[in-house]
Amino acid sequence: MSNNEKNKTDDLNWSDFQEKYFDALKSFNSADTLFNNNSSANSFWSSAIDQWWTSVKTGENTHNENLFEKIVGQSQNYYFLGEQFSNLINGISSLNNKKDVNSFINKTFEDLQSMFSQKSSGLSWGSLSGAFDMPFAGMKNNTSDGMFDFSNMFDFNNADMKAMRNKLLSMPGIGHSRESQEKIQKLIKLGAIYQDNAIENQEVMTQLSQDALELMRKKILHMNKKGENFESMRQIYDLWVESNEKVYADHAFTNEYSELNGRLVNSQMAFMKLSQEVNEDILTAMNIPTNSTVNELERRHYELRKKVKELESELKAIKEGISKQKPTKSDSVVKTKSVSTTKKKTAKKKVSKKKIVNKAAKATKKKVQKKRSPAKKDVIEIKF
Amino acid sequence: MNPFQMTPNAIINEIHEFNGKLAKGFNTLSNLDEINVGVSEKEAVYSEDKLVLYHFKARTKKQNSVPLLIVYALVNRPYMADLQDGRSMIQGLLDEGLDVYLIDWGYPDSADKFLTLDDYINGYINQCVDVICERHNRKNINMLGICQGGAFSLCYTALHQEKVKNLITTVTPVDFHTSDDLLSRMTRNIDVDQVVDTMGNISGDTLNMAFLSLKPYSLMGQKYVDLVNILDDEEKTMNFMRMEKWIFDSPDQAGEAYREFIKQFYQENGLVKGTVKIGNDIVDLAKIKIPVLNIYAMHDHLVPPDSSKALEGCVGSKDYESLEFPGGHIGIYVSGKAQKMIPPAVAKWIEKRT
Q: Are residues A150 and A125 in the same domain?
């Protein structure tokens, strides 16, 4: 293309392209094409926005990109529900006997629940709630930050890993490296316990997604009975959110869930703690400073800092005490009048000033002790 | 009957409209200016380690003679109380003639992991109180605690009552074992010793996930669908972004202080049982005899109203008042309703007791 030739896209700015992309989608997307889709999470709109986001995401700054990632993720859920309910509405409209509406709704929800229970559908509690992670789940990645890569521990389908785990766990430690062998065995055991808890948690969440769909179905049927209806896709989405929150909250308040959450976090921490130890053993053998080394330094630093603060506080109080005991203006007038006193008198004065300073120091030290720990002072008084 | 009174094409149009907003929104977000927070003019008057004590510039000719110290929580950042012009509790308090100070805890790092509640309460807070007393040549000040900062204020007052003239607590957890406290339930079976021994400091992200997991579908999903609908309005988008910035601007928690707080407050419910130990001292709320104003939010999902209301039965003060705000945990600081209600009520209550 010569320099004089103008590119057809030159007049469009980058953001116009984004809008045109969605306009283009609109032009070849109709109810007919939509309803020919089978029920799948990877449906037309979800795929379209996924492609769009993949093409634009590198052009944004990190903060906005993170936010948009969340928006896009949630939009995909919105589209997914839109598509499922479009199919439902289309199905209802084609019914010959309008009395079959409820049965058709029931059938649609059965299909949806079945989709949620299949791992291959790509639908999960986590993905539909906006990439929700457990509070400590982010730490999962930290476990592979060290020298060993423990990430395979979390691959539930890794048959090789399971076979290796069983073999290792059945072998007794021998020789001079017996202790480290046993540590590794214990680590694998802890990894397996964490894995079991993670699977249990995932299963609970999947079940909750299905329970939420069941609740939503009941609510829709109840609305139908009362003659209430939906007028927008957004209302359907909001009902889906409401149902999920209700089911989740009901379960989260049970002791059963609190215990599972505790088991999950505790097993993860136990696994991480021992991984740290195993890594530290290797680093220590190579005379490389470890986390424990830094911890110890930080602890000593903290204690020193605390001591310095106490001393500063005491010093301040002493200075204040001294300044309070300094001679007043009238005292200094008297002092000037008796300037011609003997050296002996001056020496005596110095001694008495020293006494005053010591007295002030003692008084302020007591004051500081009182300020820092009144309880301690009470104990001292009782002893006296 | 068919409960779906719309055609499939209507759904398609609704989704196309949504797509259009999304595309335009991408443009709006790309062009947004820097998100500014913390609007009121202030100066740092004292600092120690990561802590900075701020003094806000007066907005009235005459101020109440007793300075007010705001003690914020260790979780999230204190600019929530001064988010933007017209949505700032601090601005409201200044407009009511109060002389306001605020503790900003900063961002603790690995070097702070051994800080205990004793360091925070008998150390930092006490030091700030002394600094303010010295600046104003007074023996005591007024104190306003926010959320966890409210719990700290209660502990501080119980231990150093002579330095607090009046105490105001806002959305402050007191009874950590009320039946509707999900956060408390979720921490009940966690081995916090193991968590802190393993992690050192507790990351802000971890806390965020814990808070968001209380209402995951609304807070991590629906909220962003709602956002698409306001993306064509730059001002509304900016307001959303300010909140978003605040929510995810979470300092890490000093490990030891976190250990003590979760164990003594959440797991043992020590504040109402009178078993919380700060340094060498047991916190006995019954020792609090000074006037107390307890403000809580009716729809608070983080600190249930009953948790805050329990304070009445714990403090020994004969001058106890409570104020219910018809909103949530955050709304009490940033909503338009709160601006009209909270600062005037606080100022009036203090005025009566000055």
A: no
